[in-house]
Write a structure and sequence with these properties.
The structure is a single chain. By secondary structure, the protein is of the alpha/beta class. The protein has two domains: 3-126, Response regulator (Rossmann fold), CATH 3.40.50; 142-217, Arc Repressor Mutant, subunit A (Orthogonal Bundle). It is built from ten helices and five strands. The protein has helices at residues 12-23, 37-47, 63-73, 88-97, 109-121, 142-156, 160-170, 175-182, 186-200, 205-217, and strands at 3-8, 28-34, 51-55, 78-83, 101-104. The chain has a five-stranded parallel β-sheet, with helices on both faces. Helix 4 links the parallel strand 4 (78-83) and strand 5. Helix 4 runs parallel beside helix 10 (205-217), helix 7 (160-170) crosses helix 10 (205-217) and helix 8 (175-182) packs across helix 9 (186-200).
Length: 218
């Protein structure tokens, strides 16, 4: 059976272009379109797609609120956010609202389709854009959680300060907010982030947040 997709974006031309692209595939079928977050929630309930692709910025209801509602009303639907590069904090908020990942609007066609398919088949570790929040972990004891965190720290050779900053990144805090929280200058925060991204082998704070949510926060 083909992957059933809902596309929610307030730009009609973008939705039409994306639909045309997907019509050329055999395994992906667009079952609904929405021009705003409210419509996305309604159509997600009525069509029950496998994946709801939500633009972060939409009128009436933004993608974050729509993601939270869809996750609550139809938890089986996997949610991916559509975004541009400067939406880092909003993407992180969406992840915490129930989205399992994101796709950049300027992504290469091959990458775009690969992220959709990886999300559908649950291959989250194959992509830095997917956190797999729709799959709950088995209940953990505090010791199990600490052991998991310890393995993560050892794997990436993180300092205690770097781990703390990574948690703040996953919470969606800006550099200025992190500066106040840990009582360090913004320049020091930037230095820690640069080192953290290098150790985690990620390109930006969004990819770092996805990794953190997937491995130690979610």
């Amino acid at each position: 059976m083909p992957l059933k997709l809902l596309i929610a974006d307030d730009e009609r031309l973008f939705r039409q272009s994306l639909r045309k692209l997907l019509e050329g595939t055999r395994d992906i079928r667009v079952v609904a379109e929405a021009a705003d977050g409210q419509e996305a929630v309604i159509k997600a309930q009525s069509t029950q797609p496998d994946i709801a692709l939500l633009d972060v910025r939409m009128p009436k209801m933004d993608g974050i609120k729509a993601a939270k509602l869809i996750s609550s009303l139809a938890p089986k639907i996997k949610i991916l956010m559509l975004s541009i590069h400067d939406d880092d904090e909003k993407i992180i908020s969406a992840l915490r609202a129930g989205a399992m990942g994101y796709i950049l609007k300027d992504a290469d066609q091959k990458d775009f389709l690969e992220i959709l398919r990886n999300a559908y088949f649950g291959k989250t570790h194959a992509s830095p854009y997917l956190a797999n929040l729709t799959v709950s972990r088995r209940p953990e004891t505090q010791k199990m959680a600490e052991d998991r965190k310890g393995r993560f720290v050892e794997k990436y050779n993180l300092t205690e300060q770097e781990l703390r900053i990574l948690h703040l990144v996953a919470e969606g805090l800006s550099n200025e907010e992190m500066s106040r929280t840990v009582n360090l200058s913004r320049e020091t925060i930037k230095m820690h982030l640069k080192t953290l991204f290098r150790k985690l082998q990620v390109k930006n704070r969004t990819e770092a947040a996805v990794l953190a949510v997937r491995e130690i926060v979610g």
